[in-house]
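Hey,

The postdoc asked me to send both predictions to you directly instead of through the lab channel. I've kept everything plain text so nothing gets mangled by the mail client. Protein one:
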Amino acid sequence: MRQIDHHIVGGAGGSARQGDVFDPNSGNIQARVALGDAALLERAVAAAKKAQPAWAATNPQRRARVMFEFKRLVEANMDSLAHMLSSEHGKVIADSKGDIQRGLEVIEFCCGIPHVLKGEYTQGAGPGIDVYSMRQPIGIGAGITPFNFPAMIPLWMSGVAIATGNAFIIKPSERDPSVPVRLAELFLEAGLPEGICQVVHGDKEMVDAILDHPDIGAVSFVGSSDIAHYVYNRGVANGKRVQAMGGAKNHGIVMPDADLDQVVNDLTGAAFGSAGERCMALPVVVPVGDETAERLKAKLIPAIAALRVGVSTDAEAHYGPVVTQAHKEKVEGWIQKCADEGAELVVDGRGFALQGHEKGFFIGPTLFDHVTTDMESYKEEIFGPVLQIVRAPDFETALELPSKHQYGNGVAIFTRNGHAAREFAARVNVGMVGINVPIPVPVAYHSFGGWKRSAFGDTNQHGMEGVKFWTKVKTITQRWPDGSPGGGNAFVIPTMG
């Protein structure tokens, strides 16, 4: 059986503990992944510590050239990477290519790192005094990444961390760990020095080792909110800089004037694409007014019936299986919970079986209506192909729903009314807003981050926020004497004179 090992300097050697990696399409175990411990992490950190000073001293143009070559290599290997990703995650090939491409957009941003690392300069801040600042790397950073985007999120983290001069250690999800290893190999091929990008596999034992290691200065995390909160608290307690992105329950507000055909087209992709395993999925739709709700539901039912669920290599499939049997059971448990709570089960995706793949982890698309805010299934993240309709009588109620929810990752409004859209965007208590855009993930040169229990820490991912996270600012105040003995005025701090 295929073995997936760590990618660290000097080779990893055997790990006593191993985890199973499934093929979600068949339900079979396809590989085993090594699960590391604190001793293995120590070896990776030692290699990173040895390599990082020279990489930080490498001028930004040369670091950018590595990013350019890495981007070229990833594009050249796009097909093999996408098939590798789909085989372990289950998302369809087109979705996997999108996963990789959105990560590559951050690498494109990193190709311009010489420009964004320019500091600030003030000439004549005082008599003969100049002040300037520089951004310097943290040293060694780590990324703890989730199963649902095994290419995009490691690329989001590693690209900015490495381009700014840090060494970086990736701890990917043990459910689909192969793509991050391959990306690290491509970084080496692109000219990145050994020790600057390494991959360690593991479970909670490895996560805790990362959070406790004194030489790791910053940690970026994406996962569930409870774990994000844990990672943030433990990392900060150990003196680290931490950004920890959590779960979501994103709402799509549908105003009476919205183009419902476009809304339904957007919703079927945003709610059910990638089997709903996205923190920026749109699992809650909020039609304003019962008339809007009835028209929307009437259009949703046939659109959902037309969705094709298939294996990840099926080019006609809209989405594939979920990642594991345990996750399938969890999602189906939420479907039952929502029905027990009194919501109307309009379309039931449980019991879906694909001929020839009966043991695969498939769930059909599911639709609920008359979901209310007191239901646990509304309050919590389901993370599956389940869409809930929560009706709102008016705009103010619709605005209040995402604003008061415990999660605040993303939200969307569908309308032709510019005033309503502008008012909504300004007032909603959510970190990322889409106006007639169902999944408002910002482009790479802006930054990604939610509010409330969707994010812990003060700095967002990628863009200039990412540059700030992976660097520290040093400010220099300088004065050059005129050279004559005893010459020149006494030094005066600029704010004092």
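Protein two:
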Amino acid sequence: MDGTILVADDDRTIRTVLTQALTRAGCKVHATASLGTLLRWVEEGKGDLVISDVVMPDGNGLEMLPRIARERPGLPVIVISAQNTIMTAIQAAEAEAFDYLPKPFDLPDLMKRAARAMEQTRTAPTPSPPSGDDLPLIGRTPRMQALYRLVARVMNTDLSVLISGESGTGKSLVARTIHDFGNRRDMPFVTATGDDLATTDDVADLVARAQGGTILFDEVGDLTAQAQATLVRLIDRLEGGPRLLATVQHDLTPRLDDGFRADLYYRLAGAQIDVPALRDRVDDVPLLAAHFAARSERDGAPPRQLAADAVTALRAHPWPGNVRQLEHVVRRLLAASPVETIARPEVEAALGDALVRRTADATGTLSEAVDRHLRREFDLRAGQLPPPGLYQRVLREVEAPLIEAALDATRGNQARCAEMLGINRNTLRKKITDLDIRVTRRRKLM
């Protein structure tokens, strides 16, 4: 059995057992305790099989299956769950999971089912090779051209590379490009987190999986002090072994020796690549939108096109979620629009009327403004209902600017901001991450 398997389970013991068993069977394994990380891997094209738990800290694995099917048609998913009721089995079948196993499961049985799923993947029709419109990185602006030149310079070196950028800019895609187009392209590419540095056995397993390929440490800014120390020792032993890449959301230099080890930073930053935010390369928005529209149509979305004023509206949006947010908006527009040509009003509605809010008359109460814009959401659709998830989208559109305004008012002091909002500081930090709220330089200095 060979190929790459994505494992998602919040039980670290199960992740370890599956990783070791599947690796011994000849597979590459990416394991995580987060459905968000799993979905990101799927969106990036990783994996030939998914093995996922149902109840996870950040969502329900069964509810993710339709999204996985949309992102990667034909990618098999084996569901494992401690909620071994008939309803779980029915829901797994309705969601078209490849297989379902209740916990505790028999490991040899799971391995046999995984082998069958991998065989199905191998015998499925082979997708066409990437065309000129399906390159790994998209953009023609000066910022992206500079990034391309830097990637080309470091691609075939042994330098460690620290890739920085906001959430959704494509840091992992840059890392994957360095590997896939470099001289280690035929060797394994392994994504690692702090969980892979917990014990000596974990570290040994990580190095064994990577062989002489590439290890990508995802979001090293979140590593604990113990994980940082382990990573320093690992890097010192890896000379001549796998290459190290790392991603981070924020500049680490202000945190050196005050939360992040300087010796680790200098080991990781043999070369540094800063991935620009989408708002800093807005001339790439039309190109990216056309790319995502073409890919969605190839994936089965109805043929649609964006009118010139719709593209103008996309360019004017601040894109706090960057390229990932743009892709989701374009895919949602193409899937939900009842007309062939998508115009500006539909784009504004899909963005939660963010553009309208910035230019509308600020008179009246907040409740009146919200009422006006929500009614516009329905009126623009000419009797068609908005796509599912409207409640959460509206909450997000209100919550994000509230937190941003509160952070500005407290000059980035998160303790004061949390107190003013009446929420726990840890809750505030989680919302800043979940809502992709950009922390400006003025806030970071606080």
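Summary for protein two, as requested: The chain has a mean pLDDT of 81.

Thanks,
C.
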